[in-house]
């Protein structure tokens, strides 16, 4: 890892988890005895990059998070920012709170607790060199695009499924997040691309899953157990 810039990570945990259909937003659900969000923060804290951590949380969950930190004796330093109406607005609030210039900022979903240290370190290295580094994996399934009443096959070797972290030089990310919100912004790469900057893809990991639906919890727990046995 060879970059001289300071590193930050914005961990977005401001969502309500409507597709999970649980009373508690999915970032607070326990995996192997600890909330999902704690696994995610630890992944960044324990990486060689050890970035400054900014956590975007909906205002109504600040108190719960403080209670969980006490209960789990969780002392990793982090700054809490109030999340917004959408993922875009949560990230904008967090990015606007970073006063330092010429730093590297990774954006990561709180609900991707399986991200590896190797990916985190490579993301900062690549963003330092190229300006952007967006994690993605090649499609393992065949792909068809619906056209009219039918569909046609696409070359799956040119289709990548995008993950987080998505990492940027701060000037690029800040400028991109000055744009007005549109609902075509599904991730940070789409926001940055809209501002006119090309995206560099880096290799993700099929186990870096996003916990979205109820069945993802058991999969994430199994992968976490496997990871801890490999250590
Ligand atoms: N207003 C929002 C909405 C989403 N997120 C975060 O963005 C990440 C990816 O979003 P997603 O998986 O869609 O989470 P939710 O919005 O919580 O889920 P759903 O779409 O099912 O409601 C999550 O870590 C989520 O907490 C956020 O910080 N602020
Ligand atoms: C950012 C992301 O995780 C990249 O795959 C994804 O786009 C988030 O999408 P969601 O619709 O908020 O689940």
TrEMBL record:
InterPro entries: IspD, IspD/TarI, IspD/TarI_cytidylyltransf_bact, Nucleotide-diphossugar_trans. Keywords: Isoprene biosynthesis, Nucleotidyltransferase, Transferase. The record marks 156, 210 as: Positions MEP for the nucleophilic attack. The record marks 19, 26 as: Transition state stabilizer. SUPFAM superfamilies: Nucleotide-diphospho-sugar transferases (SSF53448). CDD domains: CDP-ME_synthetase. It catalyses: 2-C-methyl-D-erythritol 4-phosphate + CTP + H(+) = 4-CDP-2-C-methyl-D-erythritol + diphosphate. It is an enzyme of class 2 (transferase). Its EC number is 2.7.7.60. It holds the Pfam family IspD. One of its GO terms (molecular function) is 2-C-methyl-D-erythritol 4-phosphate cytidylyltransferase activity. Pathway: Isoprenoid biosynthesis; isopentenyl diphosphate biosynthesis via DXP pathway; isopentenyl diphosphate from 1-deoxy-D-xylulose 5-phosphate: step 2/6. NCBIfam families: ispD, PRK00155.2-3. HAMAP family: IspD. Belongs to the IspD/TarI cytidylyltransferase family. IspD subfamily. PANTHER family: 2-C-METHYL-D-ERYTHRITOL 4-PHOSPHATE CYTIDYLYLTRANSFERASE, CHLOROPLASTIC. Catalyzes the formation of 4-diphosphocytidyl-2-C-methyl-D-erythritol from CTP and 2-C-methyl-D-erythritol 4-phosphate (MEP). This is 2-C-methyl-D-erythritol 4-phosphate cytidylyltransferase.
């Amino acid at each position: 890892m060879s970059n001289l810039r300071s590193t930050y990570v914005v961990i977005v945990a401001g969502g309500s988890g409507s597709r999970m259909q649980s009373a508690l937003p999915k970032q607070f659900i326990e995996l192997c005895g600890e909330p999902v969000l704690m696994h995610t923060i630890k992944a960044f804290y324990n990486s060689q990059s050890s970035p400054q951590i900014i956590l975007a949380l909906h205002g109504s969950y600040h108190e719960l998070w403080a209670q969980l930190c006490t209960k789990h004796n969780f002392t990793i330093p982090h700054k809490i920012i109030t999340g917004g109406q959408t993922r875009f607005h949560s990230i904008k609030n967090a990015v606007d709170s970073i006063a330092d210039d010429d730093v590297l900022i990774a954006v990561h979903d709180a609900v991707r607790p399986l991200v590896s240290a190797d990916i985190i370190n490579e993301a900062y290295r690549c963003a330092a060199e190229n300006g952007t580094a967006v994690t993605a994996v090649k499609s393992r399934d065949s792909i068809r695009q619906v056209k009219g009443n039918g569909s046609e096959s696409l070359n799956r070797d040119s289709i990548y499924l995008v993950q987080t972290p998505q990492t940027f030089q701060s000037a690029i990310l800040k400028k991109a997040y000055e744009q007005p919100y549109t609902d075509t912004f599904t991730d940070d790469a789409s926001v940055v691309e809209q501002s006119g900057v090309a995206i560099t893809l880096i290799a993700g990991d099929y186990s870096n899953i996003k916990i979205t639906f109820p069945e993802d919890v058991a999969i994430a727990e199994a992968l976490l157990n496997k990871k801890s046995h490999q250590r």
